[in-house]
Amino acid sequence: MEVSTTRRGFIKGLIAVGTLLALPATLLAAMVRPKAAFGSKEIDASLKSLFGDASIEASDKVYLKVPEIAENSAVVPITITTDIEDVESISVIIDKNPNPLSANFKLTDAVAPEVSARVKMGQSSPVRALVKAKGKVYFTTKEVKVTIGGCGG
Amino acid sequence: MEDKSVKVRGKVKDGVAKVKVLISHPMETGTRRHADSGELIPAKYIEEVVFSHNGKDVLTAYWGASVSKNPYSAFKIKSATVGDKVAVRWSDNTGTSGAKEIALK
Fold first, then answer.
1. Minimum distance, in Å, between the CA of residue A35 and any CA atom of chain B
2. Interface of B with A (CB under 8 A)
3. A92, A101, B79, B103: which has the highest count of C-beta atoms within 10 A?
4. What is the pLDDT of residue B30?
């Protein structure tokens, strides 16, 4: 953009920049990090802030791959896949972590509903995989045991 | 975009690309203390990672501090061909960021 030295030009420039900034802000409203959900220490509050009033139900079409016993609680591999179509997001909640919500993946239709990551666990805890599709939330839970001291106990 | 903080591997098989990413990052939770001084180590963790395929954003990962140090993540692009560009860009809670682009193999 050309920098104007006149006052009128400067104001015009301001307006132009303002419009440019305002447009993507509305377009990107749905693509913002769910900060409150990550900051929450309560699972229910996190769910509410992530999914609003969407119904949440257990599903055998959400597949959660985690080790039964995590030998290193700082690196617990996790993979979530699902047969459900039109997946909008995949989230990981570790019930007994200080902040239960660990990750929230926003998918587009260009990617397969399959994500992997590695997470830290403070202690043995249920791990939940939540899949949001068509306005509904489906989840599955698995218990992961953490061996303290890392000696395989 | 040469950035040593990010390693990306992407391989196409039957039109589907499996992309694996490894980012060098401390993923500090902000609740740990220095062993000697007892001072809190300030939080430093990746909040957002955006993956794009041929310039189009296809997956956004929002992470909390409980994602492991030097995070690894993997996902699949449904329709891809060898040579397609896959890019990764990340940013953390302190404003640090990184990016990397590769061509699928």
1. 9
2. 16, 27, 29, 31, 47-48, 51, 53, 56-69, 71-79
3. A101
4. 87
